[in-house]
Structures are given as structure tokens and as C-alpha cells.
Amino acid sequence: MEPFPSAACQAFKKQILAFRALVSQEFHPVQMMIFLDVINQPKGTVTASYVQHAYGVSQVSASRHCRALTKRVNANRAGHDLCYWQLDDYDFRTKVLVLTEKGEQVAEEMRQHFSR
Prior knowledge:
Elements: H1 6-22, H2 29-40, H3 48-55, H4 59-68, E1 72-74, E2 77-78, E3 83-87, E4 95-99, H5 101-114
Antiparallel strand pairs: 1-2, 3-4
């Protein structure tokens, strides 16, 4: 098997390590991808269902990763506080992820790791 280009692998590793340094050592790569989607996708489009289909994970896993980005994962565990749930403007049954102030700050600090 031919190895991946080392520059791309190194950049990817640096990006994950930078996220972990800014947010938490427990920051999961799927949560990183969801966070990037909240930044890059049109506002109001990143839902647990979107994550399920975009990354091929179960609904339970998608919801768990999304909740980890909010202030509270559950009653006993704090989240990363990078996003919050907002009710969809058109469907009251749907909640979308939106960046918090902390999330916007982390996004700006991470920009340098993605703009090379």
C-alpha cells in the first residue's frame, strides 16, 4: 500500500492537536468535524440528522457528539460549550447547532491552522 502524503498527514495531525490544546484533550475528531461544519455550512443546517447522514454514524452517536459541543452533555457532565441548540425557524421538532461566543473565539484561533 502506498503511504499518504506526509505533508497532508502532518497538517491533519497538527489541526487535531491544536483543537485539543484549545478545547480539551478529550476532543473527538468527529466533534471537530461537526464544529467545522457549524462554521462552514449555512447557518441552521447542522442538526443531529445532518451529522448522522454526513458521517455515516448512528442517530445515537450523532446526538452524543453534537451534545458534547454544547454546554452540558447531560445533567452530570459538562460539554465543550462551543455551540448551543436553537429551534429551527421552519420546523419546531428540529434543533440546529449554532456557535456560542466561545465557539466563535475558538474558530478564529483555529483559522491559522486551516489557512495554509
